[in-house]
Amino acid sequence: MTQLPLRAQLASALGRTAATLSRATGRGDGSVIGGRIGLALEPDLLSQLARDRRLALVSATNGKTTTTRLITSALQELGDVATNAFGANMPAGHVSALASAKDAPYGVLEVDEKYLPAVIDATGAGVIALMNLSRDQMDRAGEIWLLAQKWRRALAGKNTHVIANADDPLVAWGASTAARVTWVAAGQPWKEDSWCCPECGGPLDRKGVDYTPPGGHVAGAAPLAMVPRPVEDDWACRECSFRRPQPSWFLDDDAVIDPRGQRWVLDLQLPGRANRANAAIALATAEAFGLPVQAALPRLREVRSVAGRYTTVERDGRRARLLLAKNPAGWLEAFDVLDRSLPVILSVNAQGPDGRDTSWLWDVDYRVLRGRPVFVTGERMLDLALRLDVANVPFQLVASFEQALAAQPPGKVDVIANYTAFQQIRAEFDRAV
Amino acid sequence: MQSDSILRLVWIYPDLLSTYGDQGNVLILEQRAQRRGIPVQTIHVRSADPVPESGDIYLIGGGEDRPQILAAERLRRDGGLNRAVARGATLLAVCAGYQIMGSTFGGEEGQPVQGIGLLDIASGRGAGRAVGELAGEADPALGIPMLTGFENHMGVTRLGPGVRPLARTAVGTGNGDGTEGCYAGKTVGTYLHGPALARNPGLADLLLTWAVGAQLPPIDDSWYDRLRQERLTAVLPQQA
Ligand SMILES: [Zn+2]
Question: Residues that bind Zn(2+), according to the entry (chain A) (predicted)?
Fold first, then answer.
């Protein structure tokens, strides 16, 4: 690793000290505080820390943290990997991650969608993985079409290899200015943000998929949300030439088909369709680093839980599996993971990181929960209660997660929570278990 | 209702303007009609398709700048919504959809974009974004309780003499002059998400009453009431 200039070395060392202090004083995992102090001292620090490493950036609305973890796990086959494993996905977190693994020849950084252009510029990363874009925390996240447009501008004219989901029209549009793109057919269950062409605004036609309104609801009829087989998931604009690029990698049910046509059964420990899609992106990204599927896949299979997602916590014989869902597309993916035979606890907050507007609850089709015991809690339980009442989903309101858990018979239960509700449950169980 | 005994709800352009849970307003009208034994048919109109003129209640929601401009262009070209409202249909227009109903609104760079002129209002872009809870006393002539909801917009809307304010704001920004939303005839415009009808079942019933042409029997509102109570208490602590 090249020596950092003295000022940068100092900034980086101070950053590490602050991170240690933050951990010691219990004010977080330290990953952001260290980076903030470092950045204040040396704005070019991120560029300098990124120099002479092979970097992958990972961005999307959903699945960033998990995909970052999967790619990191794969690349460890090649050598040491610097990564922001705690989801501190803004430049401060990137500085912190790279500074704490100075000698790692590889880096995999989860990047907040809004910061991606700045981080591309600062790091000159050689590989960028882009999975999906959908509505998310509208009161602060802003507009996803604008976001995709900024991606286009940031990628244009750069010598970057992008790995992108061809099944998400907005991602395809956002990635298509890159010099080189490897397209992955990773699927797109949530389509409500891409019925119109990002290029011209015309209607997008989808092969094998009729238009379904958000939530799939039509009065009088009750078709459940369609989840088409990804390989059939073609789309094209009716009015201009923008259409789905030809993928070279395919997610095919429980397997990935590589560019040579070989089918690899994934057999992950992480559950659900969304994680198989993340794995497809991770395998294509690993190959961009020269790591073949047969070497990468066993590494992906080792990943069991990511920052508490999918972990099971236990109390008094009740074993609760924790699923994080931060927005409507995330809830759709979480429903896909649920065990149909189990009761489910739902917890919803509306603090800053969750988005303070709970309107998004009405974009989620909760009718899939009919027929199993449903428990509702969280700081905005009444918003969710009315939503379920209107969807004719019977439920029980419970004052706290602890009470909801205590109300279960001994055995398994699934939990879906949004961001701060999820963190509250983790904090509670970190102390208790 | 138009002709037969089915209440026709028409949801306009969910492919462009449904970014803030706007489907909720449709679902709530369906529920509140069905719980009174009124059969409902809901029609979703994609932006490439014509707006049918035979609906009873039309709904249009919120969205980003670019889809808002596309929606305004297509509604103007289509003309179906204007003809339906002229015929006496009821309309609920929310946020971006509300601004489209006026003479002009602010585009991506603040440039004026032509609306469809169903409400005597003109909107522009404000200095900052209005984001947060909103509460306000509804116009007394409407006979509905205090409005509650969540706003998230950059719009400033001037009301002309042809409309009345929907509410006087107690908390929040609304139109930007101490009022929130407006109405004229059977057309209601509002900045409120939440969605608006989830937070304000009285407003939902007002729209249904206009469409059905008769008073509606009360239904069990306990979940609505608890949510309203909680939200109003949170934003108006002195009132609790
Ligand atoms: Zn097009």
Answer: 197, 200, 237, 240
Integer-rounded Cα radius of gyration of chain B: 17
Token look-up 């202090």 returns A21
Kindly write down the DSSP assignment for every residue of B24-39, as one continuous string.
HHHHHHHHHHHTTT--
DSSP, residue by residue, A83-98: E-TT---SHHHHHHHH
Tell me the residue type at A397: L
pLDDT at A8: 57
Residue B217 preceded by cis peptide, ω within 30: no
B27–chain A Cβ distance below 8 A for any pair: yes
pLDDT, one tens digit per residue, over B76-125 is: 999 999 999 999 999 999 999 999 999 999 988 889 999 999 999 999 99
Q: Are B198 and A362 within 8 A, CB to CB? A: yes
Do both A338 and A233 map to the same domain? no
**pLDDT at position B4:** 64
Q: Which of A201, A211, A386 sits opposite B70 (nearest CB)?
A: A201
Examine the fold and report which residue of A250, A279, A300 is the final residue of a domain before the chain moves on: A300
Q: What is the CATH number of the domain that holds A361?
A: 3.90.190.20
Is the confidence metric ipTM above 0.90 for this complex? Answer: yes
User: How many domains are contained in chain B?
Assistant: 1
Question: Which range of residues forms the domain containing residue B60?
Answer: 7-235
Q: What value, to the nearest 5°, has the Cα angle with vertex A407 and ends A406 and A409?
A: 90
d(CA A285, CA A273) in angstroms, rounded, equals 18
The rounded mean pLDDT for chain B is 95
Q: What is the DSSP letter of A102?
A: T
Structure tokens at A342: 């189990």
> Ligand 1 center to residue A150 CA distance, Å?
18
Q: Which residues pair with B42 in a beta bridge?
A: B9
Instruction: Please check whether residues A237 and A364 belong to one and the same domain.
Output: no
Q: Does A215 touch chain B (CB under 8 A)?
A: yes
How many CB pairs lie under 8 A apart between chains A and B? 120
Nearest chain A Cα to B226, which residue? A382
How many domains does chain A divide into?
2
Tell whether A406 and A336 lie within a shared domain. yes
Nearest to A401 by CA among A391, A411, A416, A388: A416
Domain end: A273, A300, A327, which one? A300
Find the mean pLDDT for residues B32-48. 96
Q: Does B129 carry a binding-site annotation?
A: yes
CATH of the domain at B64: 3.40.50.880
> Which pTM value belongs to this model?
0.88
Amino acid (1-letter code) at residue A363? D
How many whole angstroms from B67 Cα to the centroid of ligand 1? 13
Neighbouring-strand partners of residue B16: none
- What are A373-415's pLDDT values in tens digits? 999 999 999 999 999 999 999 999 999 999 999 999 999 999 9
